[in-house]
Design a protein that fits this description.
CATH superfamily: P-loop containing nucleotide triphosphate hydrolases
Helix content: 25-40%
Order of helices and strands: EEEHEEHEHHHEHEHEEHHH
Structural class: alpha/beta
Bound molecules: adenosine-5'-triphosphate
């Protein structure tokens, strides 16, 4: 598979903490790659480097072959990477459609075209009936879907999704899984960070596991989660020994 995104030997240090160490992995065209690992493993730092919020200390990050490491967030958005945040913060007094239009303006200044695109997106999200509701009056889960829609309105080739089902009920999580699969069916490649294993297992074609900033495993999710190094990272050495 041709990669859309390639990280090679990427590292980032914050003072004494090596948040990401020599990470090399790629996302294929049309692939859903899960980035997993225990708390503090470096997942968000890796996201922030890809999205231009942090400059890597070393290494290259290529989008369709072009190095984007160290570029500004808006340049990376323009290049075709969209992202959702762990905490969704829509403009509370704007409606669903108006919030979606904000995403669209990253690509297109024409208000009419943008409104049409936002209306379509509200339907894609299953929120057509709520399109004129102010974001302040939405449930937390609807705000998450709105966050996803806003990122999609920037017309990304690659979407970075950070913990999209945090705090969701099981049925909401199931709805989000369906929605993410619909996003991929539009030809968008996806890199997803998620703690809910059921979601990672049902969405990811492959997973990459980070622990203390280092890549400790990668491959199909079912194979990777049973590897001793991964079990040790999540549950500790004792758990691995007790299974031996
Ligand atoms: N801006 C920062 N300044 C200093 N240290 C940071 C900063 N951002 C992250 N770190 C540290 O870098 C390490 C990796 O953090 P990061 O947030 O990337 O992990 P994570 O895998 O996303 O964790 P979680 O699953 O809890 O969100 C942690 O030790 C964290 O405390």
């Amino acid at each position: 598979m041709t990669p859309i995104l390639e990280l090679a030997n990427v590292s980032k240090r914050f003072g004494g903490i090596q948040a990401v160490k020599d990470a090399s992995f790629s996302v294929g065209q049309g692939e859903i790659l899960g980035l997993i690992g225990p708390n503090g493993a470096g997942k968000t730092t890796a996201f922030n480097m890809i999205a231009g919020f942090f400059k890597p200390d070393t290494g290259t990050i290529r989008l369709e072959g072009k190095d984007i490491a160290g570029k500004k967030p808006w340049e990376i958005c323009e290049a075709g990477i969209g992202r959702t945040f762990q905490l969704s913060k829509p403009f509370g007094d704007l409606t669903v459609v108006e919030n979606l239009m904000v995403g669209g303006f990253a690509r297109n200044r024409d208000r009419r075209v943008n409104r049409e695109k936002a209306e379509e997106m509200s339907a894609f999200l299953g929120m057509a009936a709520k399109r004129n509701i102010e974001a302040n009056n939405l449930t937390a889960f609807d705000r998450r879907k709105l966050e996803l829609g806003r990122a999609l309105c920037t017309e990304p080739k690659l979407l970075l999704m950070d913990e999209v089902v945090a705090g969701a009920t099981p049925s909401e999580a199931g709805e989000m899984v369906e929605l993410v699969l619909k996003v991929r069916a539009r030809g968008i490649s996806i890199l997803i960070v998620e703690h809910v294993m059921k979601v990672i297992m049902s969405l990811s074609d492959r997973v990459v596991v980070l622990d203390y900033g280092e890549m400790i495993a990668s491959g199909p999710p079912k194979e990777v989660v049973s590897q001793p190094a991964v079990l040790k990272a999540y549950f500790g050495e004792r758990y691995v020994q007790s299974r031996a």
